[in-house]
Amino acid sequence: MKKILCLCALALVFCSACRDKEANVLIFASDMEPQAYVQAGQRLLIRVRAYAEETTLSRVLISSIDAETGSRPVKDTSVGSTSSEFYFMYTVPAYFSADTTAMTLQFEVFSVDGKSSKMVLPYKVVGGGALRSHDGIVMYAMYSGRPNGFSLASVQTLFCETSDSADIDFYAYHDTLSTDSATLSREWRSRTGLQFARLNDFDYAGANRLMLGNTYKAARRYTSVKELAEGDILLFGRGEEAIGALQLLMVVDEAGTANDRYVFNMKLKY
């Protein structure tokens, strides 16, 4: 009789445990090539697995978190079952604010009854960070009667004749003693101590902050640049600090001076 009572008691405890078992959700994420440091533009292949106990999954949310852009969703998937497994390809973004940026991929799973769980994969994004592009800039010749200088602070062309010298980072120079004012001089100078390095083999399209800085420091630099031609690539900065790069698209020298101009694309660190 005692044995029967004990068995009944155990059965009651077991049934009670079954009734009291809480619903639970879990999520796991693993980089197929585990790494702490990644390059801007690199593609990461992530395996994501989510499970539910005593409930049903409703959603898996993946977010990218960093100091520059905050938290932003990069994938939001509906589920509707007790498990989900998939591979997620993520392209590492380029950042403007620093040469190395902390980035976190956050993985969250939700159930239909409000349960949730999350895990994170932390990374350091290196590779120099991105440069800000400014395309199709037109700067005219000194005697054109049009904007003939450029300000890096405002990222705009300006008139040298009416602007403060402290704002004229580079301009279309012309020798005031020359008797030939109609021919484009193809020379730029600076009034703010800017230095130039002409490096036509520089990878302008793929340039980033780190590449720009290292190349600029290693290059011979001058306070002016002469014989400018279409396709030239100029790196510029002050002292040992690179500021940007530009690529000349057009150098136009028409009859007279009104339409003589330089057309270029520019990439800046800020």
- Determine the mean pLDDT: 89
Summed up, the domain count is 2
Query: What structural class is derived from the secondary structure elements?
Result: mainly beta
Count of separate DSSP helical elements: 2
Quick one: how many beta strands?
18
- Biggest sheet details: 5 strands, mixed
Bin the helical content.
10-25%
3D architecture notes:
This protein has helices at 2-20, 209-218, and strands at residues 24-31, 37-39, 43-53, 57-66, 70-78, 83-91, 101-111, 116-126, 132-140, 149-151, 156-158, 170-172, 188-189, 195-198, 224-225, 233-238, 241-252, 261-268. The chain is mostly beta strands. It has 2 domains: 23-126, Immunoglobulin-like (Sandwich), CATH 2.60.40; 132-268, no CATH class.
What can be said about this structure in brief?
The protein has 2 helices and 18 strands. The protein is mainly β and 270 residues long.
List the helices and strands and how they pair.
Elements (H helix, E strand, L loop, with lengths): L1 H19 L3 E8 L5 E3 L3 E11 L3 E10 L3 E9 L4 E9 L9 E11 L4 E11 L5 E9 L8 E3 L4 E3 L11 E3 L15 E2 L5 E4 L10 H10 L5 E2 L7 E6 L2 E12 L8 E8 L2
Notable features of this structure?
270 residues; mainly beta; Immunoglobulin-like; five-stranded mixed β-sheet; five-stranded antiparallel β-sheet; 2 helices; 46% strand; elongated; disordered N terminus
